[in-house]
Specification:
- By secondary structure, the chain is mainly α.
- 77% of the residues lie in helices and 2% in strands.
- Strands 1-2 form a two-stranded antiparallel sheet.
- Strand 1 and strand 2 form a beta hairpin.
């Protein structure tokens, strides 16, 4: 890992520790608590995909006629991540995106999907996403989190998009959360099996392979430009602060 990457991660560590220590994790004690958690967390799973696609749009050619864009190395890195996130497999080996897998898990455990499906319906009908966010019934902290994501996805430079994607959107899974899932799975396996699989798959794919590819992408895009590294740090900190507010919304 490059010195600049190491320094950036070191400066973000206090925010990561703060997130891991958020009281929301101690409040999820049963299946109903997990349902409430999922009904808010699903927005972070969805807008993560939009952030991912904004990077693909920025770093590769998605228009016709095709023309080479940017570095072949960053093209490979983002396309490899998109492949895994957009067309992974569910617990039965069927191709599925991670967001669709999460929705499947929510339906299986009877979590409320009304808000996220209302948002998807508005966007599908042509409502601009920023307008759609103001038309659905979600807590203000969730709106702030989503508005920041789409400000980055729609308006920011690629190195900032990559930094927020890589460091500002880590889904931190403390050990107590995994222990709770094991307990709930033992009690109601038919309800929790898909959610448990999602978390395990997320740790296996996103937490290992994709995180390594993403840090390479940030390093490629920032290079030796100190201003870009500073931008990357500030945007990542802001994203982690807003993730904390998202957890506040779940906790409330």
């Amino acid at each position: 890992m490059s010195t600049r990457l190491q320094e950036l991660k070191k400066q973000l560590e206090p925010e990561r520790i703060k997130l891991l220590s958020h009281p929301v994790y101690t409040k999820i004690k049963d299946l109903e608590g997990l349902r409430k958690f999922a009904s808010v967390h699903v927005f972070a799973v969805w807008d993560f995909m939009s952030l991912l696609k904004s990077l693909q749009n920025s770093l590769t050619s998605v228009s016709i006629p095709w023309m080479p864009v940017g570095s072949p190395s960053t093209r490979y890195l983002i396309n490899e991540i998109v492949l895994g996130e957009e067309s992974d497999v569910d617990e039965e080996g069927v191709r599925i995106s991670h967001f669709e897998l999460y929705l499947k898990a929510m339906h299986r455990m009877d979590a409320d999907t009304t808000a996220i499906e209302s948002l998807l319906s508005l966007v599908r009908s042509g409502t601009p996403v920023r307008k759609a966010l103001n038309e659905i019934n979600i807590p203000d902290n969730v709106k702030k989190f989503l508005q920041f994501t789409f400000d980055i996805a729609l308006d920011a430079q690629p190195h900032i998009q990559a930094a927020v994607f890589t460091f500002g959107r880590e889904d931190l899974i403390p050990s107590m959360f995994n222990q709770l899932l094991e307990q709930l799975y033992s009690e109601t396996p038919e309800k929790v099996c898909t959610f448990k699989y999602y978390i395990e798959r997320h740790i296996e794919v996103d937490g290992e392979h994709h995180s390594h590819l993403a840090t390479q992408m940030v390093s490629e895009l920032c290079g030796t430009d100190e201003e870009k590294w500073s931008n990357a740090l500030n945007a990542s900190k802001k994203a982690l602060e807003l993730r904390y507010l998202l957890w506040d919304a779940v906790s409330a």
